[in-house]
Amino acid sequence: MCIRPDVASDALAAIEHAGGEALGAMRRLVGTLRDESAEAEMTPTATIADLRAISDQHPSGNGEPAVHLRLDRSSEALPGEVMASVHRIAQEAVTNARRHAAGASAIDVDVSCIGGRVTVEVTDDGRSGGATRAGPGGFGLTGMAERAEALGGCFTAGPLPSGGWRVRADLPVEGART
What is the mean pLDDT of the chain? Predict the structure, then answer.
């Protein structure tokens, strides 16, 4: 077997270039598939058990931040389309915190219903200043905002003054647009 570093170096450069082109093509494809005029899919598939499973799937002690879930009693009776959006927003926000919240030790998910509205808020205690565990993201925040808006709600996300990050969606429970 003959090892030729000059050939290996060229091959690795070609592989890196091809990978970059493939990633760019995939991002363009996903962007094309995201028709801004289309309604977000609102198939009511999630249940309260699915929402509870977000914290059950991520037990502490595995090197990742613990997920703490707090549900008020009335969140158990959310309509299907609202529950599906609450679940998906919470799930995506937890995933983002796990990927991007450098130094986070905890992720808190709080779902509360007050005055015909449900609020889902996900916060982490990671370091501020833009430090992340992973590189650039995809369409997570955009997808969460689209879900909230599809139901006639509102969505915000951003850093907390004391460090960490907060994702918050406020959705109508009754008369939600579907």
Answer: 80
- Per the model's pLDDT, the better-predicted residue between 114 and 175 turns out to be 114
Of 112, 107, 110, 167, which Cα lies nearest the Cα of 137? 167
The tokens describing 86, both together, are 């609450």
Query: Whole-angstrom Cα distance, residue 101 to residue 97?
Result: 5
Report d(CA 130, CA 109) in Å as an integer: 21
Q: In this structure, which topology does domain 48-172 adopt according to CATH?
A: Heat Shock Protein 90 (3.30.565)
| Residues pairing with 124 in the sheet | 107, 165
What count of Cα atoms within 13 Å lies in the side-chain half-sphere of residue 26?
A: 8
Rounded to whole angstroms, the Cα distance separating 82 from 69 reads: 18
Residue with tokens 């907390």: 160
Q: What are phi and psi of 142, to 5 degrees?
A: -60, -45
Domain boundaries, the chain: 1-33, 48-172
Tell me the C-alpha distance between 127 and 159, whole Å: 10
Could you tell me which of 122, 148, 105 has the C-alpha nearest to residue 69? 122
Q: What's this model's pTM, rounded to 2 decimal places? A: 0.68
